Amino acid sequence: MRAVTDEQLIDWVARGDASCLGTLFERHNKAVYQYCRQMTRHSAQAEDLTQEVFLRLLRKASSFKGRGTFKGWMFNIARNITLDHLRAMQRRGVDTPVEESMDGVVENRSAEQAASGSQSMEVLRTALGRLPETVQEIIWLGRFEFDSYEELGQALGCKSGTARVRMHRAMQQLNAEFTSINGAPIDV
Fold first, then answer.
1. Which among 95, 110, 4 is positioned nearest to 42, based on CA atoms?
2. How far apart are CA 50 and CA 28, in angstroms?
3. φ/ψ of residue 131, rounded to 5
4. Largest pairwise CA distance in the chain
5. What predicted TM-score, i.e. pTM, was given to this entire model?
6. What sign does the CA torsion over 37, 40, 46, 52 have?
7. Radius of gyration of the chain (CA)
8. Phi-psi sector, 41: left (phi>0), alpha (psi -120 to 50), beta
9. What angle do CA 131, 102, 122 make, to 5 degrees?
10. Residue 163's CB: how many other CB atoms inside 10 A?
11. pLDDT of 64-86, one tens digit each?
């Protein structure tokens, strides 16, 4: 039996079956939350924005025309909502506290490897934090959410070739920041 695709589900939502949105939420809410969390650096805001993304999906379901993937379309909506939120915060002069979170270290490593990895991750996190938000966003989406430049381009609202160039430039900027902090380029 073949699983129902995201594209079929959003079509059913557009035709009035709002219950299908629950399946889409189950499939994608963690990724949308992580994206919003990365961009806002605040978990409560990320939760609110994630809810807003899925409400907007419900309201705008009929605007999905099948040009590209559902995931790319959904992240374009998430991006617009998140950027609108960040601009509104900036206009109001609201400075929200940044929550620091250290992700868990991969298991099955020696304490020495874990300490070295933690230090490298902290340098990488610092380097990423020094980059403009738009560059951070491209790296996040391009490395953690999408497998192709076509989907990345759809999420960013540009062509796949443009997405490839933006990703390349973003990684160059990240490498330059990492090198300025660490004294050596990123070891990939």
1. 95
2. 10
3. -80, 155
4. 57
5. 0.74
6. negative
7. 18
8. left
9. 50
10. 24
11. 998 889 999 999 999 999 999 99
